[in-house]
Amino acid sequence: MSDLDIDSLYPLSDAQIAQFRRDGFIKLKDVLSPAALAHFGQAITRLTIELNTQQRPLEERSTYDKAFLQVMNLWEHSPLVGRFVMGQRLGRLAAQLLEVNGVRLYHDQSLYKEPSGGITPAHADQYYWPLDSDRTITAWIPLQAVPEDMGPLGFYARSQSVEFGRDLGISDESEEKISANMARHGFEFCSGAFELGEVSFHLGWTFHKAGANRSALPRSVMTIIYMDAAMRLVPALNAIQANDAAQWCPGVQPGELAASRKNPVVYAR
């Protein structure tokens, strides 16, 4: 792989695909080079700062807003970031792990946990998404190494089939109730530092959370959310899902293919 190559094949084994199918997440080393992360990361960071609308000091924010600064669909604001989000290396990995023939973009999202930023409470992403199957996956892409004190993402292994907690958004309540339920049923919480170039992938229904950022630097992370290219919308279960449908799949009606102008096919076999 050349320094900036984001399209080449990552050698994923059958055992790793089986591991993901079992655990609902996987961490993969050396997915992106330091040079690629620095090159594209500069643009991602610049846009995150420019487009961020959160101006309140940390002590005045909710638990959700203390967790991170977030900016969505950076790919629409920069051809360079668009090139990164449409990269074949990550898109192919998403399709292989989901065991589907292709993936569309649902949306991208930068997540910058500021110094002294709070925990990211336990939750499952797909609570927010009005989609008709569980074939959704998030690539969590740190733009630098993430030691323990920065609050790396951690996952409850094999929790993707658990129904309890799927109706809880990110909140103090979700942290308390989901964490307690995971502990009660013996789900292993897998957490640890991310090396530079390491990327994790997790299913939409896999429960996960992150610690506070106790370091003096921001924890700079880009995420790309992919879905099966054959995904369809379903009727929204709540106002949050209705807003998600309108924002990320504009003009698409329930029952239709989630293929708006904002949902290009990133990778197809």
Describe, in plain words, how this protein is organized in 3D:
This protein has a single domain, classed as Sandwich (Jelly Rolls), CATH 2.60.120.620. Helix content is 28%, strand content 22%. It is built from 7 helices and 11 strands. It has helices at 14-23, 34-51, 63-67, 79-85, 88-98, 172-184, 239-248; strands spanning 25-28, 69-72, 102-113, 120-123, 136-142, 153-156, 189-190, 199-203, 208-210, 219-228, 265-268. The strands form 2 sheets. Strands 1, 2, 3, 5, 8, 10 and 11 form a 7-stranded antiparallel β-sheet that branches. The longest helix is centred in the first third of the chain and has 18 residues, at 34-51. The two termini are 20 Å apart.
Which keywords apply here?
single chain, 269 residues, alpha+beta, Jelly Rolls, 7-stranded antiparallel sheet, 4-stranded antiparallel sheet, 7 helices, 28% helix, 22% strand, Phytanoyl-CoA dioxygenase family protein
What's the helix and strand layout?
Layout: H1 14-23, E1 25-28, H2 34-51, H3 63-67, E2 69-72, H4 79-85, H5 88-98, E3 102-113, E4 120-123, E5 136-142, E6 153-156, H6 172-184, E7 189-190, E8 199-203, E9 208-210, E10 219-228, H7 239-248, E11 265-268
Antiparallel strand pairs: 1-8, 2-3, 3-10, 3-11, 4-9, 5-8, 5-10, 6-7, 6-9
CATH superfamily: q2cbj1_9rhob like domain
What is the H/E string?
HEHHEHHEEEEHEEEEHE
The CATH architecture assignment turns out to be Sandwich
Q: Output the radius of gyration.
A: 17 Å
Largest β-sheet summary:
7 strands, antiparallel
